[in-house]
Amino acid sequence: MSKAAEVSPRVLLFTGKGGVGKTTAAAATATLAARRGLKTLVVSTDTAHSLADALAVEPGEVAPGLHLHQVDTQKSLERHWGELRDYARGLLTELGLDEITSEEITVLPGAEEVIALLELREHAQSGAWDVIVVDCAPTAETLRLLALPEALDWHVNRLLPVGRRIMKLAAPFVRGVARVSAPGDEVVGAGERLHRALLEVRELLTGDGASVRLVLTPEAVVLAEARRTLTSLNLYGYRVDAVIANRVFPAGGADEWRAQWVNAQSRLLAEAEESFAPLPLHVVPYLPAEPVGADALAAVGERLYGEADPFGPPRVRPPLRLSADELELDLPGADRGEVDLARKGDELIVTAGPYRRILALPVALARREIGGAALRDGVLRVRFSSGARSGATSGASGHDDRPAAT
């Protein structure tokens, strides 16, 4: 890797409930970055691309210092997944399916989002950009996507070594009996490369140069989802460094109808400030017209951030912190009743609402018993005793220890 590529760009991810204006916030931030002399790339992981519409341009260099990239799924799929897809297509053909059906079946669900992550990694490693802005899919899809690299790592570490041994033993029998092709080393190698690439994506997006910005509108349903999203992003180890409230009615000169909206939004904004503190809450007023094009978006960016530096290092700590005898995980907004903690072998399983994360403990902590756990002030603290574990359960045993979270 070149020296230029060793310097990671500032990576900003924008997500929120569908329809809250996250694409506008992302495009405005990217345009502002370019206007301030930063080499900026703006990309989307949302299959419903709308960045080009917001900027009113085609992909490419859309303004001085600002590049818009739109994923070409078909070309990228062949480059990242070609060997695996070719093997699956050939296997289905050998089993009697026609070529067209085999082609359709091997189109990967969610491939476009995964490819977008892989291309994001390549852009970050190129050393060509100071800032990369990512317009993410709505929150549910984004959470599934961001959880993918670690979840895949968990499965691969357990299945791939076993799978390699089985295939070496079974390949002659598979070819001789079933008359189908066993995957060769190049196919398994392609899977391993994809696995490593996704781990590098996670390392990039949980690193010191990356953060997420939550976009919301001052509505009760949207605010409730944004709170849950903050908890879930922290659970998976992603830093949220700001919240953006979009489409806020200005208070001055309001008629009776608009005054009611102003009052309702004011109450919800105060609630949002309390819910997300100490994160900054940036406000974008309800504009008289939709901001389309670089000039309009740059003006939105200026109003959005004011005197703040939106491109400096994130000022929030990593959500997951480990010390010699304690694990801390920030879970802001989580209720004690919806957080569950379990120990299985060398892993700690943390559940917050509908989301679960399996944490592989470092060796120093994996050898020790859990002394206690508590969720206080939005932080889950798990204390480990000084003595080594006795009778530790293994992942294959099917049993787990459930330390009480007080």
SSE order and pairing:
Layout: H1 3-6, E1 10-15, H2 22-35, E2 40-44, H3 51-55, E3 60-63, E4 66-69, H4 73-94, H5 99-105, H6 111-126, E5 131-135, H7 139-178, H8 185-205, E6 210-216, H9 220-235, E7 240-248, H10 256-276, E8 281-285, H11 294-305, E9 320-322, E10 326-330, E11 339-344, E12 347-352, E13 355-360, H12 363-366, E14 368-376, E15 379-388
Parallel strand pairs: 1-5, 1-6, 2-4, 2-5, 6-7, 7-8
Antiparallel strand pairs: 3-4, 9-10, 10-15, 11-12, 12-13, 14-15
Helix pairs in contact: 2-11, 4-5, 4-6, 4-8, 6-8, 7-8, 7-9, 9-10
How many angstroms does the end-to-end distance come to? 47 Å
Number of helices: 12
Strand content: 15-25%
Shape, per Cα inertia axes? globular
Mean pLDDT: 80
DSSP summary, beta strand count? 15
Helical content stands at: 40-55%
What structural class is derived from the secondary structure elements?
Answer: alpha/beta
Q: Would you identify the regions where 5 or more consecutive residues have pLDDT less than 50? A: 1-5, 91-98, 100-106, 162-171, 173-180, 392-399
SSE ordering: HEHEHEEHHHEHHEHEHEHEEEEEHEE
Strand order of the largest sheet: 3-4-2-5-1-6-7-8
Gyration radius, in Å = 24 Å
The biggest sheet amounts to: 8 strands, mixed
Family: Belongs to the arsA ATPase family.
InterPro entries: ArsA/GET3_ATPase-like, ArsA_HSP20-like, ATPase_ArsA/GET3, HSP20-like_chaperone, P-loop_NTPase
Pfam family, one: ArsA_ATPase
Protein name: Arsenite-transporting ATPase
